[in-house]
Design brief:
Chain lengths: ~300, ~240
């Protein structure tokens, strides 16, 4: 039982990370009907910027863990958001009026470019955040020992997701995003500045992705330049499982993916974990091609 | 203010092309304050294209779209982006209604007021007064409304923007005759309350009964214009658009 709860909390934390990345795919797709293939690389960039701040610049030594992590979160999210914004300007905006496929090619190109840029900057070898970066605290709940970092990861993922939901449903800009996701032309006729909406989703999505990258570094301890590939692919799948374009769906899909993967690795086979995960995902999609959420909940964004 | 004492909108030599194909070959058109002007024409004549150009959703190849504001300024709409046009109070109800299906009726109406700094429950009430059906269904997903109810919603949503100039693109499309009647009655009411209206229609007879003046488009050009009563009895119009009855 304890073993199961241990795996469960681990799966939820992993799922929270997937969910954060999946949100970036789904928001951009919702508004632009474009899959931002470079999103996984923005996520990896977040992991490396975190490495840069926490390990190379040793912020923790200077500021103490709480302040250092707080500052790192803000800087990583801000810088990756900026990168996402530049990406939109350079790779997508010039193609606004061109063929869909042109944008896909541009997205793939941007992805390769970013991955190479990361490799050239930080090298092809693994980089370690280090096991002793944060005090290795264990929280004990009735015999169950949970690493503090797991709680921090899960908790911040949930807070960010909740915040995003409130932003989308309670603010004027959120309303504009929802309207543009349903029908761009009609949204324009309501006075929504769709260009501004696109700018916003290309800032929000990457910010969340960058945060997820930082979390991976902190939670798993080491990163590599092609980190974005597999995480990107899985989070993208999570977004599809939740019904692409659907924000709640991306959250649910990400969580589900984290759980399936962790429990599969624990109880079936570590080596077959990715194969097993995708098998389950494919089966879900065969049964529900438009995603797991029931029809009535399916509200775009 | 009497109807038609000052200009509100003027199109000068408006040309629009989709790729290499020119859809409008130089349209001249005027709308005066308080008027209800109808644009008639067969499928593909360029009626929707004209409205889309005014709303800033397609950019003209050449020509001008001049909007005269209440305080006497002239705005060249061809240089503005769509949300700026909406900001001036030029509001379109597009062909096919395009309500936001996954949102409720009331959310759609609130979204209609998106361009305004302030709006009140009174604005909602006014829409519900005009279309009581919408109030009954305020919490229903608008995608599940009937065609007629969706049209009411599309018009109500536009009213929430406090339009100065209302552009209606084929509001009678696909509606039963009874519903067309009540929609047209509502349009007249809106116009009489002081909103200038451009009504694009294929249902020429009904539109001409409502309008002050009308323009007839054919493959991208204005072929006929005049006051509505005269057009109703015009030989050519009767032959081509009203059917000889
Ligand atoms: N997005 C587009 N791309 C290419 N051609 C277009 C586009 N929209 C309209 N057209 C063409 O422009 C011409 C005018 O179309 P428009 O929709 O303005 O006609 P309409 O008078 O509104 O017709 P209807 O009564 O059928 O709505 C048509 O020949 C149409 O095929
Ligand atoms: Mg049309």
């Amino acid at each position: 039982m304890l073993e199961f709860l241990e795996q469960l909390t681990n799966g939820l934390a992993r799922g929270g990370i997937y969910a954060l990345i999946a949100l970036g795919y789904t928001m951009v797709y919702g508004v632009m009907k474009l899959i931002n293939f470079a999103h996984g690389e923005l996520f990896a960039l977040g992991a490396y910027l975190g490495y840069c701040l926490l390990v190379s610049s040793n912020l923790i030594g200077g500021l103490g863990p709480v302040l250092a992590i707080g500052l790192t979160i803000i800087l990583v999210m801000g810088l990756v958001a900026l990168a996402g914004h530049l990406l939109e300007k350079v790779a997508y905006r010039p193609l606004r009026h061109s063929d869909r496929l042109a944008a896909v090619v541009s997205a793939l190109g941007a992805s390769i470019f970013l991955q190479n840029a990361i490799m050239l900057t930080w090298g092809a070898q693994y980089r370690a955040y280090g096991a002793n970066l944060l005090p290795n605290l264990l929280i004990t709940v009735g015999g169950l020992k949970i690493p503090l970092i797991r709680i921090v990861v899960l908790f911040s993922a949930l807070v960010v997701m909740l915040g995003l939901r409130m932003f989308i449903h309670r603010t004027r800009l959120g309303l504009a995003i929802r309207a543009a996701a349903i029908d761009q032309k009609a949204a324009k006729l309501m006075g929504v500045d769709v260009r501004q909406v696109i700018t916003v989703v290309f800032i929000l999505g990457p910010a969340l992705g960058g945060l997820a990258g930082l979390m991976v570094g902190l939670y798993y301890g080491q990163i590599t330049f092609n980190l974005g590939q597999l995480y990107g692919l899985k989070a993208f799948t999570a977004a599809i499982i939740g019904g692409i374009g659907n924000i709640t769906g991306a959250m649910v899909g990400g969580m589900l993916l984290g759980l399936i993967e962790t429990l599969g690795a624990a109880y079936i086979s570590v080596g077959w974990k990715d194969a097993f995960t995708f098998l389950v995902l494919i089966m879900i999609l065969i049964v529900r091609p438009t995603g797991i959420l029931p029809e009535r909940v399916v509200e775009k964004l | 203010m009497t109807v038609g004492d000052s200009l509100m909108l003027k199109l000068e030599g408006l040309k629009v092309a989709y790729g290499a194909v020119e859809a409008l070959h130089g349209i001249d058109l005027e709308v005066r304050r308080g008027e209800l002007v109808s644009i008639l024409g067969a499928n593909g004549a360029g009626k929707s294209t004209t409205l889309m150009a005014v709303s800033g959703l397609v950019k003209p190849k050449s020509g001008r779209i001049i909007f005269y504001t209440d305080d006497g300024r002239q705005e060249y709409l061809e240089n503005l982006r769509s949300h700026q046009v909406v900001g001036l109070g030029v509001i379109q109800v597009p062909e096919g209604r395009r309500v936001f299906g996954p949102m409720t009726v009331e959310e759609n109406l609130k979204l209609g007021a998106f361009s305004r700094k302030k709006w009140s429950e009174d604005d909602l009430k006014k829409v519900y007064q005009l279309f009581p059906r919408l109030e009954e269904r305020r919490h229903q997903m608008s995608g599940t409304l009937s065609g007629g109810e969706q049209q009411m919603l599309a018009i109500g949503r536009a009213l929430m923007a406090a339009p100065k100039l209302l552009l209606l693109d084929e509001p009678s499309l696909g509606l039963a005759p009874m519903l067309v009647k009540s929609i047209f009655k509502a349009i007249k009411e809106i116009n009489l309350s002081g909103v200038t209206v451009i009504l694009v229609e294929q249902n020429a007879r009904a539109a001409l009964k409502l309008a002050n003046r009308a323009y007839v488009l054919d493959v991208g050009s204005v072929v006929l214009t005049g006051c509505a009563e005269a057009l109703l009895t015009d030989e050519k119009v009767r032959e081509f658009y009203l059917g000889t009855r």
